[in-house]
Amino acid sequence: MGKSRARRVRRAGPGPAERRDGQRGPEGDPAEGQEPAAELLDKLQHPSAEVREYACASISKLLQQKHVIPAFLQRDVVRCLGPLLMDHSLAVRETAAGALRNLSACGGFEVCDDMVTDDIMTPLVALLKECSTGLDANQLSPKKSREMSKNYIEDIANEAINLLWNICECSNTAVYIFNKEGCLEAVLHYMKKFSTNVDLAISVANCLQAVTEDNPDLLSSFNASAQQVLETVMMCPESTMKHILLRTLIAGTIWNIKDTIPPGSLGSMVNAILKIFSESLAIDAGETIIRMNEAEKNRLELAAEAETEENMSDVVDNCVLSEDDNMEEIPKGKLRRENDVSDLLPSDKWELKEVTALLTAQQTALEIIVNMCCSEDPSDDEWEELSSSDESDLFMENSYDEGSGLLMTPLCLSDEVHSAFLNNLIPKKILEKTAFPNSVALDICMHNRSWKPLIKKLNAVQCRALTCLHSILLVSDVDSLGGASALQSLAQHLSQLVFSKTELPTDTEFLEAITSALRALLQTMASKNISQCMTPEQLLALCEAGIHSSNTSVRVNVVSILGISGSVLAKGQDTAETLKMIGKFLLEVAMKESSLVVAGEALDALFDVFADGEEAKKAAVQIKLLPTLKEFQPVFRMRMRKEGKGHYSTDQLCVLDNVKMNLRRFIAYQETLGKTP
């Protein structure tokens, strides 16, 4: 109903902590939950640190299964685990933080709110501040020197930061406490470890991006020193995928706090942010998967060969030992306990972790660009530094992708920001990400259990790119988009995404993203009378598939697409038959759709399609549009009275009121047409 708007996207919080073998627990194996929650919670009070650590680790594993979470919540698991964040044993602190992290990740928004209500923030803030102080400890007491190593403290901090990230993503109260307790200083202190502990830095960057989003009360804490920490990390030269992810997250944080940056420096800051996004998006994820998978195979083969040689060497050594009566035999159990801890450490999956970091960086970059599109237009003086003397030359050189004619234009936030986007070729790279993932890479992931989760990430990047494209289309004019030919090329590209396979797509996330992009594109093309490339048959096929989606946004989009295309066809010749099919489809949706929002969109589309034109007039008579709408009008009014309040937002009700009023006017207009000779 009306032009669609760009919507901000929120990033998902962190996942649950991994087990020490690097794998997550099963989703719902009943046998895993047979040990009573009460028994494990009782063990948290045991005088032995090893028993407490075991209990925390067991609870952590169980909490990854959603069906056992209620049993722990009923027994006050948060108040039982919370004090252990400050346990005398650092091992207990780490496993307790990991258990709470899993609870927050797997429990969802309501559980996170309850955790704040149960005062988890008090011990968590104390732990974060104490670990921050511990990072700088120059001397360790002899008694605890082995346990209190800096790496151990950093591991605890990593779990605690991830817990904080989860809670702050879900709870405004947690964010308020973060501000009030001055947690920013401690969190930024961890960031200074980025050169030696990039994993900790990434966790901190994720947390920072969460707490800085829509948090004006925190802005005053970002003094010059705090900004310097972020800028130092953002400019680090390391080229690993993890460092690309780290820079991307920091760029997002700096965008969130842009109001603290002096106007004279804002232009260079935006250029720096977009350069980082460009660096991330320029990497071919499919080729990276193929290359990294091959590297993993080679590494494992070399490791297997080395292990074989080592085993043979051990056999020889053992023979020598047995012949030498004067040499003391080393107990095998003791040797393994002290020197072989491979079964306690995460599996070495650095290739997989690198690819995962790349895909996360690309998804994050695309989400931030969407939010940049949704920002209010900046004033001209804020973007003064971005102006470029050769802007027009850049536009001419970069408006099209050579050979394909695809759109390569920037966001229409301001003329100066155009230049920044063109300089970094952002739109071209966004378009590249809208394509389906590399088939060879997908095959690798399908046949490798540990790599299989990457398929979901590949698809997420494609969907975010389509959402990005949708936002760009909404904030740009036709000329800045490259003109009619560029838009037609883009329409062909989107059509191929929908119709290139034997069956129409059914994935909800993809359908919402592709239909949103198509809707925005067709709106733009229709507004300038640019001929559309999709045939009526293709449009109807897409709408038939989309209207059965469980996602309301998909249904709204396909109805709107049909209305836009129908209004264009109504201006042509010999289109009455097609208009009849469109009209019947929209009438059926309006009368049978369970959602009033979708039904209202269908009515709006009918008004657009049959507003004018001889072909529309003929089709309206043949499908009995006027009598059908007159009969339906009281039904729609009654539905609004019964279903409106309590089921729909104020904005939605306002739009539906307009539809109701327009329905009355449209019926009157059609009656006038009927009287015209």
From TrEMBL:
It comes from the Eukaryota. Residues 17-27 have a biased composition (Basic and acidic residues). One of its GO terms (molecular function) is unfolded protein binding. Residues 416-672 form the SYO1-like TPR repeats domain. One of its GO terms (biological process) is protein import into nucleus. Residues 1-11 have a biased composition (Basic residues). Residues 1-37 are annotated as: Disordered. Pfam families: TPR_SYO1 (PF25567). Belongs to the nuclear import and ribosome assembly adapter family. This is HEAT3 protein. It comes from Grallaria varia (variegated antpitta). The gene is Heatr3.
